[in-house]
Amino acid sequence: MVTDLKRTILYICPICGKMQKINIDIFSLSGKKKITYSCKCKNSHIRLEVGKNKSYMIYAPCAVCNEEHIFKIGAKIFWSAPQIVFGCPNVDFDIINAGDKTSMNKIFCDFNKSKEGIDFYGEYFYENPMLGDVLDVVDNMLKKKKIKCHCGECKISKSVFLDRVELVCGNCHTKKVYDAACIDDISFIKEENKKKEIIMGENKNGAKGRI
Questions:
Q1: Residue 26, Cβ neighbours under 10 Å: how many?
Q2: How far is Cα 164 from Cα 206, in angstroms, rounded to an integer?
Q3: Three-state SS across the chain?
Q4: What is the pLDDT of residues 167-183, one digit of tens each?
């Protein structure tokens, strides 16, 4: 018998890097087929859908591989288990934590006590120190919503590689790449940061096209 009618869900936004805490109760899904919860930065979200046979589908973005993953769980387990962990199928990384408020608050507090939270890219930074400088500026521009897409959407996802940072529009899939392989790349990203806004997919002449 399900006795705990409240759950706390934690996920890490792939854009701002902060852990989000969502408190729900069993009535949140009452009469609804799906509900969406957004990060405070408004650039990512998770979605819960009512599935078949008393199950739930959880759609969540991954802060490491930059893909959206789908997880299925029975309603009884979701509402009764002290702690549930959903991991990325591609790398060893926990995407979603869900459970009772006490357990989730501890995870949330431990995460925020860390100076930089979880260091997703520590190995990359060790091999390429310039990557951290480029990533810091890109994250700052995304946070200030300086980077937009020519299609009008601002749902931009980020992927980090050893020598570059890639941005992709979630609507039209236009891509923009910021290299992090030499000193000139750092100078370039700093100049980009001085601009009022950057339009992905727009060339120097103002014409539209994918970059």
A1: 14
A2: 25
A3: CCCCCEEEEEEECCCCCCEEEEEEEHHHHCCCCEEEEECCCCCCEEEEEECCCCEEEEEEECCCCCCEEEEEEEHHHHHHCCEEEEECCCCCCEEEEEECHHHHHHHHHHHHHCCCCCCCCHHHHHHCHHHHHHHHHHHHHHHCCCEEECCCCCCEEEEEECCEEEEEECCCCCEEEEECCCHHHHHHHHHHHHCCCEEECECCCCCECCC
A4: 998 889 899 999 998 88
Distance CA 184, CA 176 (A): 17
Query: Tens digit of pLDDT for each residue in 116-128?
Result: 444 556 667 767 8
113-145 burial string, b = 16+ CB within 10 Å, else e? Answer: eeeeeeebbeebbeebebbebbbebbeebbeee
Model pTM?
0.57
If you count them, how many residues does the chain have? Answer: 211
